[in-house]
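Worked example 3 (structure in, sequence out).
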């Protein structure tokens, strides 16, 4: 069965990596898409975080809590 990823968060690389770590601790796999160009150090340092659609229900409370902490 193939599951699709859904974008759940966009922010700086450091913040995206922190949220991905929190989700990983709960057993939720993530995928990070970076705007960095391969072979170049050119970037706006904005990354996108994706989770599997099947994990959205489990991930949403963690994401909401994280967002409230960084605001």
């Amino acid at each position: 069965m193939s599951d699709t990823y859904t974008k759940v968060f966009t922010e700086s690389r450091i913040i995206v990596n922190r949220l991905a770590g929190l989700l990983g601790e709960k057993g939720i796999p993530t995928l990070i898409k970076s705007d960095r160009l391969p072979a170049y150090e050119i970037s706006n340092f904005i990354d996108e975080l994706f989770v599997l659609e099947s994990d959205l229900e489990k991930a949403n409370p963690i994401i909401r809590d994280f967002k409230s902490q960084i605001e």
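Notes: The mean pLDDT is 88. The helical segments are 13-25, 56-70.
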